[in-house]
Amino acid sequence: MSADAEVLRDEIALLTRSLDDARAEHARGELDDASLAGIEQRDGARLAEATAALDALGPTTDPAPGPDARGDAPRHRPRWLLVVAATCLVLAIGVVALAVADPFGTAPPAGSTTTRGRVHALLLYAEVLVASKHPLRALTAFDAVLRLAPTNPEALVESGWLRYEVLGLGHRHADQVALGAAAVHRAVRLAPHDAAAHIYWAVVLYQHDHAPAA
């Protein structure tokens, strides 16, 4: 199986579990109809895209080499960190499977795996996906982090920016623009000294709110 196929299978598993969990919460009365509909619309569309992409790869398709640089987003990691993240890819894929099996960390950790360790590995995994130009797959990984650690500033700002820029502006979904901007703003409040959070929030204020003074 190619690396791209493995990533897509992980994304499909995460999205499928997300939908199953949301429906179970709705059945228990813990999630209202509107929230369930929003999750089904968001994750259902991404699940369909990931499934179609996996089908298109075929059994013998080799992945296209990804670029070394992250792109033109304001947040940049040192090159050595991306190298470390790449070496952790196989481990991270295993951690994704653990997060899918127990997204809220309610089951006893396997071996020495802790919630903190899973969060760290998922963040590294997401870094690899962003560096390899797979923003929607990275968003899935950041969302998995937020299931384990809802106030993680890095996951908030990165998922918020990807949701704002890629899903919102790129795919012209106004609701995703609003959700992404809200996540970035929350990251600024939770981590007032995080430079990336302020940079992304500044872009939102300038670009979307047309408030250069702010």
Structure, described:
The protein is built from nine helices and no strands. The chain has 214 residues and is mainly α. It is 71% helix and 0% strand. Helix 6 packs antiparallel against helix 7. The chain is globular and about 50 Å long.
Write the topology of this structure.
Elements: H1 3-27, H2 33-57, H3 79-87, H4 89-101, H5 115-131, H6 135-148, H7 153-170, H8 174-190, H9 195-207
Helix pairs in contact: 1-2, 1-4, 1-6, 3-5, 4-5, 5-6, 6-7, 7-8, 8-9
What's the short version?
The protein has helices spanning 3-27, 33-57, 79-87, 89-101, 115-131, 135-148, 153-170, 174-190, 195-207. With 214 residues, the protein is mostly helical.
Give the integer mean of the pLDDT values: 75
**What is the N-to-C succession of helices and strands?**
HHHHHHHHH
Q: What is the strand tally?
A: 0
Low-confidence stretches: 60-74, 95-112
State the helical fraction. over 70%
Overall SS class: mainly alpha
